[in-house]
Amino acid sequence: MTSTSDTLRLTTAQATIRWLANQFIEVDGAEMRVCGGGFGIFGHGNVTCLGEALYGVQDALPLFRGQNEQSMGFAAAGYTKQWLRQRFMFCTASAGPGTSNLLTAAALAHANRLPMLLLCGDTFLTRLPDPVLQQMENFGDPTLGVNDAFRPVSRYWDRITHPAQIIQSLPAALATLLDPADCGPAFLGLPQDVQGWVYDYPAVFFEKKVHRIRRLTPDPAEIADAVELLKSAKRPIIIAGGGVQYSRAVAELTQFAEAHHIPVVETIAGRANLLNDHPLNIGPIGVTGSDSANTIAEAADVILAVGTRLQDFTTGSWTAFAKDARIISLNAARHDAAKHRSLPIVGDAITSLLAMAKGLEYKTPPDWVAFAQSERVKWDAYVADNVAHGNRPNSYAQAIGVVNALCDPRDRVVAAAGGLPAEVTANWRTLGFGTVDVEFGFSCMGYEIAGAWGARIAQVEREADKDTIVFVGDGSYMMLNSDIYSSVLSQKKLIILVLDNGGFAVINKLQNNTGNESFNNLIADCPTIPEPFGVDFEAHAAAQGAIAETVSSPAELGEAFKRAKASPRTHVIVMKVDAYDGWTTQGHTWWEVGTPHVSDNPKVTAAHKDWEASRDKQRKGV
C-alpha cells in the first residue's frame, strides 16, 4: 500500500474491508461498528484477495469460519435479529457453488426484511482464462453468471467491474441495509481479478462515520384518517408484528394499548412484544395462533396492524377477519402498508403511534375488553393442560412447557419450520421482551441451529450470562446440523433440544388431514426404505464436540435441561415425541393449501370439500 496525503492506493478488496471497518452505529447511546464481523468459507474466488484484506482486520471484523455457506447466511440472520436489525454480519463465499449455496439464506433474509451483506467471488472480468473452474457459462450472454441468480432475492445488487465503483456502491449497499422500509440483503459480486486491482482512493472515503437508522415521520393526513376510524371502533384490536421490535417500539405500543384499552394480538414474528401476563395480551393470531386471538379477530370491526406484512399465517389466508372489518396498516414499508384495502400509515412505529395518541381521545368499550380477556383465560387453561405431562405420549408442547418453566426470562428461544413453530407460537408463555425467534417468514428448515449460533454470537455481545435455546425436529436436524461444531469451536454455547418424531411429521399430518395416505414423510412410510432405523442423535452431536444425552420423558428432560444450563459448552438433549398424538389441536384458523379437486380416493375428495367449506369467509383483497 502506498499513500499520499489525499489518497490511499489499495486493492478493491482492501478498500472494501477498510471502509466497512470504519462504519459505526449508535445503539442505546453507545457507538459500535455497524458490522459485527463475518462468516466465511474461502475458495479460489475469495481467499487470495478478500482473505488477505480480512486478515489485517481480525480484531475489528472477526471472521467466523463456517461449515456450510447456507448456514452462514442463517447465522447472519440470527445475529441481526438479536440486534434488532441495528447491526449485521457479512458472508463471504467463493465463486461458483460456494456463492450459490447462499441463495436460500438470501431469500430468507429478503422474506424477513433482514440486513445481510454478501461479499461473493465472481468470474474474471477480463475473461482471459475462461472458462474457469466452477464457472457457469451462458452461451448467449457471457455477462450472466451464477451471481445473477441473487437479483430477485437481494434488495441491492451490484457487480464491481472497476475498483472505483465501490466509492458509490458500498454506501448505497449500507443505506439499504439500514433502511427500515427497504431493508434486506445487499449483494456485491467481486470478480476475482478486480478484487486485486489497485486504485488511488480518496482518504476521506475511509474516515469514521456514525450512522443512525431513520425514523419515518407519517403523513398528518394519514394519521388523521386513522384517528377518525379508531374513534368509531366498537371492537378494535391491535396486531403487533415483528416491526414493533425492529422499531424498538414495544414500550410505545404497550402505552398506546393501555391508554385506549385496546386488546393486542401478536404475529409469529411479533411474539414477545408483550409479556404473557399483560392483561391486554390476548395471544398469538392466525394459523398457528390461539382461540382467544382468533375469536376476537373474527369479531373485530377495526384492526390496527403495526409492523406486520400480514402474511397468510397471520390472516388465516384472509379468513381471520370479518369481510367488513376496516384495517389500519402502520408500516415503514409502503408495500406492506397498502395491503388489502388498508388505510395506510407509512411511517415509523414510534413516531406514528405517538402522533396518533395526540389526537385520539378514545377508550374501548369495557364489555369488548372483558370479552377478549375472558377468551384469553380459556386459552391459558388449554395451554396449561396441553403442556402438562403425565399419562400421555411425549409431545412438542410438553417439551416446550418444561423449558418454559425452567429458563431465565432473558434466555432466547429459536425455532423454525416443521411443527415446532406452531407449537412454540401457541404454547410458549413469554417471560421477556424480544426473546422469541420463530423463523416462519421463509419457514426454512435448517435455520434452527445455524440461526441460533448467530444469535448466540450477538447475545454474548449483549447478555453473555443468558442462554440461547434451540427447538429442532429430527428432520431439520438432519438437513443442517454442522453448526453444533461451529458453536463448540467458537465457544458460543447453545442448548439444543432435538425432538425426534421419526421424519417430517407435520407434513405427514397435513398429508393425512387432506385425506392422503402417509407417504414419504415419516421414515416408516417411505417405500424406498426397506429397513427403517433411527439416527443416534446423541452420538452424532457428541462427535461434533457437544455434551449430549438422551432422555425418555418430559420429567427427565427437565433434569437434563438443568444440567444443560450449568454446562460450559453446547449441550444437546434428545427426546422422542409422538408423530401422531400430542399436537396442539386448537387455535388454528383456516389456511389455504392446494387440494385435489378430483381423486380416486374418496377420503381426498371429502377432505377437499371440507377444506373448501371455509373459503366463503375469505377476503378477496379488493
From TrEMBL:
Residues 439-574 form the Thiamine pyrophosphate enzyme TPP-binding domain. It is an enzyme of class 3 (hydrolase). Keywords: Hydrolase, Thiamine pyrophosphate. GO terms for molecular function: 3D-(3,5/4)-trihydroxycyclohexane-1,2-dione hydrolase activity. Its EC number is 3.7.1.22. NCBIfam families: myo_inos_iolD. Belongs to the TPP enzyme family. This is 3D-(3,5/4)-trihydroxycyclohexane-1,2-dione hydrolase.
